[in-house]
């Protein structure tokens, strides 16, 4: 992708702010800078490990179906001086699990983090179990935390001879503060001379507003690099100047600009529309056409003492119902989201019908918004 000159980026951002600021019917949401940006390289890291949960009440892995559980138990006991190689182990009080955690930025050695546990084998429940000491590694193979402790399961399951009841997932558990950080992820924030703020939702207007608010507080400290990045440069070069600058500006309010977008989830029939969605002049008619075809064959019997044979005569019934199509009327230019939804609700349009109407409007070029189908 070609790099745009910085003056051009600034001009585009100012133009977008002027157009949207002058034509918007209502002010956008106001948020703090710390809530709408991420600091470059200041991010969490994912950790993963493999361990054993013991103390289960016969709901663990069946070793004949999960040989890795038996091998893990054998290896653990051998390290403790117990040799059971060659023995047929049939315990169902142990389950092999995956252990995952998220190491937050600037986590220090000795602090604790939460861990999530999931069964790997055919265990039916982790209720009442205890996770044995498990090392958690990053993608670089290094150990960053160690987890251990009693697991907490949110679901439950009860079963009898003829009935069973369950709620939630009993093969997934959590340990609050169950891992201790052993290794820190270094980041030279104190010695940094510049800091880049990455917008969570890149936008020219929002990036320009962030830079303008910061420069009003600290002159010349911020500049827009692209729609998703604002660079901070502290006025002084003293150690920690970048940290002090971000602490001064992170609470500043910024009016966030949102694009006109419609998100559709066809699986659940959910439609989410932004407040800036507009409709060009258009007429909408909505109705349902139902065609039902049913077969009711009848048997034709011959006369008594005749040489005829019984035959099956087809009988087909076709019913057509146009549903009494509902005309939703004419939408004038600049119709807002509120007017559109009110009109559709007045005629009892279901969410799935609404999805069809919105897609038809987009195809006709009358919907001034981006549609994202999930």
Automatic annotation (TrEMBL):
Transmembrane segments: none annotated. Pfam families: FlgI (PF02119). Its main location: other. Residues 1-27 form the signal peptide. Assembles around the rod to form the L-ring and probably protects the motor/basal body from shearing forces during rotation. PANTHER family: FLAGELLAR P-RING PERIPLASMIC PROTEIN FLGI, FLAGELLAR P-RING PROTEIN. Belongs to the FlgI family. The basal body constitutes a major portion of the flagellar organelle and consists of four rings (L,P,S, and M) mounted on a central rod. This is Flagellar P-ring protein. It comes from Sphingomonas endophytica. The gene is flgI.
